[in-house]
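ARCHIVE RECORD
Type: protein–small molecule complex
Small molecule: ascorbic acid
Source of inputs: curated submission
Record status: active
Notes field left blank by submitter.
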Amino acid sequence: MRQLVNSGISIALGLGIAGVVQAQQSPVDRAIKLRQSVMTLQGATLGGALGPMVQGRVPYDKAVFAENAHFLEMLAKRPWQAFSVAGSDQGNTRMKPEALKDVAKFKEFSDKLQMETTALAKAADGGNIDEIKRQFGVVGQTCKQCHDAFQKP
Ligand code: ASC
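STRUCTURE (tokenized, with ligand):
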């Protein structure tokens, strides 16, 4: 009986907390926030962790580079549906409306980023710095192509 009461209280608390979090933001605001969070982490991983090693500003460390390259690969695989929520081109976002008008093209860029970050993670595991530099450049170009098409400056 006590267990039943305890689990009842837990469920009620859980629902209450979920309700408070949900009430603060609309689904579109949440989608924008999620997308921006992923973009921030991708930028920080690419520009903050991997970039300095590729550019020789920080000594190349194979294990650290590979860890960050795998994290980037994982970030690029974020659920696509959550990234392209209808209406999330309006409001506090730099996404151009074109992105949601041509979702097939947007998805194509997303798929390409997944492919190229997987290749970067593989290169990172291999540890060949020339190959890593080349593939890092390809990933950067892939970011840029999508930004040029679908991101406001
Ligand atoms: C980054 C970052 C971007 C991309 C882009 C690549 O680190 O924040 O927007 O790389 O500059 O061309």
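CURATOR ANNOTATION: The chain has a mean pLDDT of 91.
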